[in-house]
Amino acid sequence: MHLRDLTQYLTELNQTNNRPWFIMNKPRYDILREEFQEVVTELIRELTKFDKQVAACNPKKAMFRINRDIRFSNDKTPYKTRFSAGITPNDKRRPSAGGGSTYYFQIERTGKLGFGVGEYLPPAPRLKAIREHVVNDATGFAKVLKNKHLRATYGDLLDEDKLQRPPKGFDPDHPLVEYLKLKSFFVWTEVDLELNAPEKLVPRLAQGFEDAFALVTWLRGVPEPLEEQADDE
User: Which tens digits make up the pLDDT trace of 6-23?
Assistant: First the structure.
């Protein structure tokens, strides 16, 4: 993929971000989008070397649209200034899709490559099921947290929007209580793109995702949640 062309395009889009500019530059977008799909396709092939469950993932469905959902946002700019994709066994791209884990990555106009693995803000029943699995499989979860590959690439789990108090119904003295407060079970990191070496993009992502495979495996072991809603109060 022509990474310099992509970041240049996204930078220009950010400076204008309106429909007339987008339409005028649609041929550029179409070429970059096609190249990005090739990246996603190649990445899926690499991931299947250690995770057979994503083999049937549709590259087109894995890619997010560049159009922003502005219905409930104060920011009415119509387009995102990044290219992004989420790879899952069930073609549910979002890290909050549940049912296991998502391999997500994005390329920013700034030249940053962000990527992460896990479940980001899963629905309440799923989140409750994950927390219960932390309690019921404390040894297994602690082993994931200590995984040397995950720690080296990502550090700890993302603590964004973490609760101030333990969730209702969970032991406040549990040794893993700080993780029970999490609203996401997701790891995340950002690195600089190697703009002059686009051939390194897919191997870098594949290795980063493999480093978090212990978390993927553990999340896939979470029992299906009941239909009842969890209460974080």
Answer: 999 999 999 999 999 999
